[in-house]
Automatic annotation (TrEMBL):
EC number(s) reported in the record: 3.6.1.73
Protein known as: Probable inosine/xanthosine triphosphatase
Cofactors (names): Mg(2+); Mn(2+)
Pfam name, any one: NTPase_I-T
GO annotation, biological process: nucleotide metabolic process
Keyword Magnesium assigned: yes
Binding site for Mg(2+): 31, 60
Transmembrane segments: none
Superkingdom of this protein's organism: Bacteria
Cofactor notes: Binds 1 divalent metal cation per subunit; can use either Mg(2+) or Mn(2+).
Species this chain originates from: Guptibacillus hwajinpoensis
Length: 167
């Protein structure tokens, strides 16, 4: 595979995919088809699938990858969730879910008011464009795990499953 397309222009997502491919990795701006701030596993997974499919449809690539971050309520706490999807020209689709971690209650309140996690975390951390850098996970793990690391793990799961299915 010499060419792969990612359904995002966010450098974090593109770099997570580039970590796994020798060939050309291109990010394209596609609509996830879900809310700017996905709530729940189902909506977040749907966003990942639709990003992968839309990315593949815009290119000559054999494979499209979609990565989507969202939030999920578990036992009254708000957690970050993330999903990935890999689709190929033959209709093969693999999915994987990634790391979860709780967010502070004051962030939960702001998101329930309709705000999006990225800008809220940037304001919380007093740093611009956190979602294109370390992400919320980088802030709340004190830099131990970055958003790229989180998506890198998802891409590993996607590729491993895909390779298993193709053997």
């Amino acid at each position: 595979m010499n060419h792969l397309v990612v359904g995002s222009t966010n450098p974090v997502k593109i770099n997570a995919v580039r970590n796994h491919f020798v060939g050309e990795v291109i990010g394209v701006d596609v609509d996830s088809g879900v809310a700017d701030q996905p709530w729940g596993d189902e909506e977040t997974l749907l966003g990942a699938k639709q990003r992968a499919r839309a990315a593949l449809a815009t290119s000559e690539s054999e494979i499209g990858i979609g990565l989507e971050g969202g939030v999920q309520i578990i036992e009254e706490k708000l957690y970050v969730c993330n999903w990935g999807a890999l689709v190929d020209k033959n209709g093969t689709e693999v999915i994987a879910g990634g790391a979860r971690f709780p967010l502070p209650d004051n962030i939960k309140i702001m998101l329930e008011e309709g705000k999006e996690l990225g800008p809220v975390i940037s304001e919380y951390a007093s740093r611009a464009d956190v979602s294109k850098k370390e992400g919320a996970i980088g802030i709340f793990t004190n830099g131990t795990v970055s958003r790229t690391d989180m998506y890198d793990h998802l891409v590993s799961l996607l590729i491993g499953q895909y390779q298993f299915q193709m053997r």
